[in-house]
Amino acid sequence: MAGWTLADIPWDDFDPARVDPDIVPIVKAASLVEYNAEDYRDYLKGVFHDDPRMKAAVDGWAEEEVQHGVALGRWAKMADPEFDFESSFARFREGFRLPLGVSDSVRGSRSGELVARCMVETGTNTYYSALAQATDEPVLKEICRRIAADEFAHYCLFHTHMKRYLDREELGFWSRFRVALSRIGETEDDELAYAYYAANGGERPYDRRGNSGAYGNRALSCCTPGILERSVDMVCHAVGIKTRRWISKPAAAVFWVLLKFRMSMLARGAH
Q1: In angstroms, rounded to a whole number, what is the distance separating the alpha carbons of residues 231 and 127?
Q2: Is the pLDDT of residue 198 over 90?
Q3: DSSP 3-state assignment of 110?
Q4: Among 35, 57, 66, 156, which residue's CB has the most CB atoms within a 10 Å radius?
Q5: Burial readout 139-155 (b: 16 or more C-beta within 10 A, e: otherwise)
Q6: What phi and psi, each to the nearest 5 degrees, are found at residue 153?
Q7: N-terminal to C-terminal alpha carbon distance within the chain
Q8: What is the DSSP code string of 51-84?
Q9: CA 73, CA 10: separation in Å to the nearest integer?
């Protein structure tokens, strides 16, 4: 699926003078989450156990996600030579595990699962687009630009399969909307907080609120109203709302205000 490999990244262009120390910790955390895609692959292949088309798509998706983790981890090591990706990932795996060995979606239906996947890809596309825009370091900018493009392609992939399952399961608008809201709310679950903890000095006792606040405040500070506008369009498309610019632009403005408020709350939690 992806049109690039690690060899396509201009590693020799790395410029330590342009590394933002506030960005390095969230890149470390993101590298662990992306690299953990094989667990998500096993979960999704269990949910779609009798669908060869979906299982093949999940295999390709997971391969790209793992590559994302490797690329981000390599950059993080260049930015901070003391970063130990392998031990950080092992620590992350010890503290956070997905529900494996299942044959049914935790969302209640396969179409619901695919709505949730669309929300995840919307979030990652938004995150890496924002990070690419926020950083001045050329290698990280290129990595994030390529990952953001992959995440949008993943969104389209899951959306295509979602439409296929909606034809069978007829999941209504409000059910899709509830799944979308619940998955968006899960961005504050233990996965990101524990990844941040594991990647950034996991010797201390795990403080969920503190690590969630530290990760969230740094990540959300990279967002802009323009990036959020596209995210609103992606969310609406997944739940079945036809958007127009006169709708998505004001909606993005509202989300921007809420985002700034959320950042102030996370800043308090990080202390």
Answers
A1: 10
A2: yes
A3: helix
A4: 35
A5: bbbbbbebbbbbbbbbb
A6: -65, -40
A7: 42
A8: -HHHHHHHHHHHHHHHHHHHHHHHHHHHH-TT--
A9: 15
Residue with tokens 């030579």: 81
- Note the maximum CA span of the chain: 54
Query: What is the number of domains present in the chain?
Result: 1
State both tokens at 131.
Answer: 């990070």
pTM of the model: 0.89
Q: What is the pLDDT of residues 79-136, one digit of tens each?
A: 999 999 999 999 999 988 877 777 788 888 999 999 999 999 998 999 999 999 999 9
The residue type at 261: F
Q: Collect contacts of 225-228 with beta carbons under 8 A, ≥24 apart.
A: 225/252, 225/253, 225/256, 226/252, 227/126, 227/129, 227/130, 227/133, 228/126, 228/252, 228/255, 228/256, 228/259
Query: Is residue 242 included in any domain, yes or no?
Result: no
**Closest by Cα among 186, 184, 134, 158 to 62:** 158
Nearest to 174 by CA among 258, 114, 241: 241
DSSP secondary structure code for residue 12 in this structure: G
The domain that holds 93 is classified in CATH as 1.10.620.20
What ranges make up the beta strands (E) of the chain? none
Residue ranges making up the domain that contains 42: 13-206
* Model pLDDT, residue 271: 45
